[in-house]
Amino acid sequence: MRIMTVCLGNICRSPAAEAVLQRKLAEAGLADEVTVTSAGTADYHVGDRPHELTRAVGGELGYAFESVGVHLAAEHLDEADLVLVMDESNLADVHALAATDERRAKVRMMGEFASDAATAGVLEVPDPYGHPRAQFEDMYRQLEDAADGVVAAIRDGRL
User: Fold this and answer.
1) What is the Cα–Cα distance from 24 to 58, expressed in whole angstroms?
2) Catalytic residue among 12, 13, 103, 145
């Protein structure tokens, strides 16, 4: 299975989600079966490393960052089995890029997999760019919870 995480600029949420998922999948013994990459719907940060606070907070949590900013293209949607977007704006942008129902069917909100999604509804992962460190810490809490749900869905055969 190939998962792609997507946010706006591919320097905050999606590389963080990529790192979180990679570790959670490894811990679950699924790293050989599932690959994770990331991209952004905008081309602002192509080739850039993840945001300083994404790396700092993530590093303190034990996450590693090897990817650089990538601009999402329609071909990426063909390569991925699952595309996890961070917010409604990302969802709209990816759906606009996905010219077929087959591509659109692969796109889901990361928040769909959160432990409280059934009761709280599907929550967006807010963009922490330009905000203080606390927003990045909150982002990681959300991503870790949702990543546990993604791993469970893979294990249970729901994905």
Assistant:
1) 14
2) 13
pTM of the shown model? 0.97
Does the active-site annotation cover 13? yes
**DSSP conformation letters of 100-118:** SHHHHHTEEEGGGGSTTHH
Given 87, 93, 127, 145, the catalytic residue: 127
pLDDT digits (tens, 9 = 90+) for 99-129: 899 999 999 999 999 999 989 888 899 999 9
The pLDDT tens digits of the residues spanning 67-103 come to 999 999 999 999 999 999 999 999 999 999 998 999 9
Between CA 99 and CA 63 the distance in angstroms is 34
Q: Where are the domains of the chain?
A: 2-155
7 is catalytic: yes
CATH of 2-155, one of 1.20.910.10, 3.40.50.2300, 3.40.50.1010, 3.30.70.1230: 3.40.50.2300
